Amino acid sequence: MASTGSPVASTQPALPSGPSVFKTVPYAFILPEILCGTWVWILVAATTVFYPLLQGWVMYVSVSSCLISLLLLISYLFGFHNNSENWKVLDSLYHGATAILYMSAAVLQANATIRSELGPHSPLYYHLNCAASFFAFITTFLYILHAFSIYYQ
């Protein structure tokens, strides 16, 4: 067969770079993931942590996920991916694994919230823990949406 000299057109869309990251699904979920995750650790840190084993895991997952997601967002904004398909796999694996970790953290935070209902600083810390549980489940949902929406681009 003779070569026609024309490049083969890729059926995969290009990965976004720059401000288009905020307009493209699933990459537009990264900023809400960071913001909701930040609220989780701010709200947990605002309470007196009575259950360090439970809420320590929540803090670890939320802080590390925020930092890694921030690095991922920066790499997309500056185009470090060079439009490589490996970035889609990395992105999907990261967000899938983080969704699982965040689900465990959300359940542990809900447990800490239930336990804090009758605690020493009941109304204030209970409400802060409720808000942290809410944002933990919202963040979990965002990570799940991000992980699965990569396949439907």
TrEMBL record:
Membrane topology: Multi-pass membrane protein
Main subcellular location of this protein, as a coarse class: membrane
Pfam families documented for this protein: MARVEL (PF01284)
Family annotation (InterPro entries): MAL, Marvel, MARVEL-CKLF_proteins
PROSITE patterns in UniProt: MARVEL
Residue ranges of the TM segments: 27-51, 57-80, 92-112, 124-145
Annotated MARVEL domain residues: 21-153
Subcellular location per the Swiss-Prot or TrEMBL entry: Membrane
Gene Ontology terms, MF aspect: structural constituent of myelin sheath
Keyword tags: Membrane, Transmembrane, Transmembrane helix
GO cellular component terms, semicolon-separated: membrane
Endpoints of the signal sequence: none
GO BP term (any one): myelination
Protein name listed in UniProt: MALL protein
Organism: Centropus bengalensis (lesser coucal)
Lineage: Eukaryota, Metazoa, Chordata, Craniata, Vertebrata
GN (gene name): Mall
